[in-house]
């Protein structure tokens, strides 16, 4: 089942997403890479009032991901 999730997340590469971490942090950015552990690599990241060029997020720390409806 995990490969199914990774394959789905790879379809979101170059898409803008909003995600929430398990510690209630909301992060927005564009997915540039997904590895076999569901870790996400983002660019053009916004966390609250802060902006980052890039950010890596461990897959196990992600609570949920929001994306455009037409990507389902």
Automatic annotation (TrEMBL):
Gene Ontology molecular functions: histone pre-mRNA DCP binding; U7 snRNA binding
SUPFAM superfamilies per UniProt: Sm-like ribonucleoproteins (SSF50182)
Any single Pfam family the record assigns to this protein: LSM
Gene3D superfamilies, alphabetized: 2.30.30.100
Lineage: superkingdom: Eukaryota
InterPro entries: LSM_dom_sf, Sm, Sm_dom_euk/arc, U7_snRNA_Sm-like
Gene Ontology CC terms: cytoplasmic U snRNP body; nuclear body; protein-containing complex
Any Gene Ontology biological process: mRNA 3'-end processing by stem-loop binding and cleavage
Designated name of the protein: Sm domain-containing protein
All copies of domain Sm, residue ranges: 4-71
